[in-house]
Design brief:
Helices cover 44% and strands 19% of the residues. A hairpin with a 2-residue loop joins strand 8 and strand 9. The termini are far apart. About 6% of the residues have low confidence.
């Protein structure tokens, strides 16, 4: 009987498929240029699930590089349903963010201006990371959004709240015990009270994201002044929703966390569009399962390829070696010629100044009477 029970449990375990980890990915086009297909002509792409590797290949193409050779024919077809078929019209800049703790933001805010017009597809998150294959580091600038916040003041919180169109009222008796109020669409206000640990940590993570975006924009300003501007990818993850999930109920997460995060992302994307002149595309992956700290779904790797600079250095080195050989040969030829000329002149000089006596060689064959 026990053997039969074990067999039945094993059969049920393997017979029913286990739930796969899935999420959603949003491709947000530029406000001034079109790099992605329109939403109306892409219904098939929205209904068909993508793999993380296909999302990574899409990012590589948007940066102006070829997709990996390991991409399947089905994967190439999915990329074609997302991207405009024009290899000469790529933004060469991508804002990529992984948000854990949310499956689909449109469930919470279906009228969101940014995500409502974006291309949406479900994504199979799988159990391993996916790689974004790029060329060497000189061809691509990678800016991380996962840098820690560090020290900050209440003035930073006031500026951040003002940037979101809200306010922060500090507590005169105790620092970092104020109240932040942010107006959000379809909700009167989102109020975050800093004395509550979950609220304070959530605000600090939003502030860290905002600061890192500012740093990325500053770096872009420096890169735009160079003669050969590299492709740029701004990537990172946001796990602030996990803090609210651990300490608040689900309704509280939807109202406080998701709506405020979507409002922040909308403002951030507006900043990036202005800074990049519309030459940037957003790729945001939502994962309903909170990820452990320091664990991300996407990873950047550099493929090895002989760069034109390396080939130029090799050619220059070969030319330098050949020139050195020619110089040595010419120097030896000139030295030999000069030595022979000096020897010839000395020989003629001594021959002309030789004394004509009987014991000289000039008279060696002369018979005297």
């Amino acid at each position: 009987m026990k053997i039969f029970s074990v067999f039945l449990i094993s059969f049920l375990f393997f017979a029913f498929p286990r739930a796969e980890s899935t999420g959603s990915v949003f491709f947000i086009d530029s406000t001034n240029n079109q790099f992605l297909r329109s939403q109306s002509s892409n219904d098939v792409a929205q209904s068909e699930s993508m793999l993380l590797t296909e999302v990574g290949a899409t990012v590589s193409v948007l940066l102006g590089f070829a997709p990996p050779t390991t991409l399947s024919a089905a994967g190439s077809s999915k990329l074609n349903e997302v991207l405009i078929p024009n290899p000469f019209n790529r933004p060469r800049a991508v804002f990529m963010l992984e948000v854990s703790g949310i499956d689909d933001p449109l469930v919470v805010d279906p009228k969101n201006a940014i995500f409502g017009r974006a291309l949406k597809s479900s994504v199979d998150l799988g159990s391993s990371k996916a790689d974004i294959q790029l060329l060497d580091e000189e061809e691509v600038s990678v800016v991380s959004l996962d840098e820690p916040l560090g020290d900050y003041t209440e003035e930073d919180i006031i500026d951040f709240a003002s940037w979101l169109g809200g306010s922060y009222v500090a507590d005169a008796a105790k620092p970092f015990h104020g109240v932040m109020t942010i107006p959000v669409a379809d909700v009167d206000n989102v109020t975050l009270r800093m004395p509550e640990k979950a609220h304070k940590e959530f605000v600090s993570k939003l502030l860290a994201l905002y600061r890192n975006i500012r740093k990325a924009m500053e770096k872009h300003g420096h890169l735009s002044k160079t003669l050969r501007r590299p492709a740029e990818i701004i990537m990172g993850s946001f796990d602030g929703i996990k803090v609210l999930l651990e300490q608040l109920d689900r309704d509280g997460v939807d109202k406080l966390g998701t709506r405020l995060l979507l409002a922040t992302l909308s403002n951030i994307y507006g900043l990036l569009q202005t800074a990049y002149g519309g030459q940037i595309v957003g790729v945001i992956v939502f994962n309903g399962v909170p990820q452990p700290e320091s664990k991300t779904l996407m990873n950047v790797i550099y493929t090895s390829r002989s760069s034109p600079r390396w080939l130029a250095d090799t050619t220059s080195s070969a030319n330098t070696t050949l020139a050195a050989q020619v110089l040595v040969r010419r120097t030896l030829a000139w030295i030999t010629g000069v030595v022979l000329l000096i020897a010839t002149l000395l020989g003629v000089y001594f021959l002309l100044n030789m004394p004509l006596t009987r014991d000289t060689l000039l008279y060696s064959n002369v018979k005297l009477d």
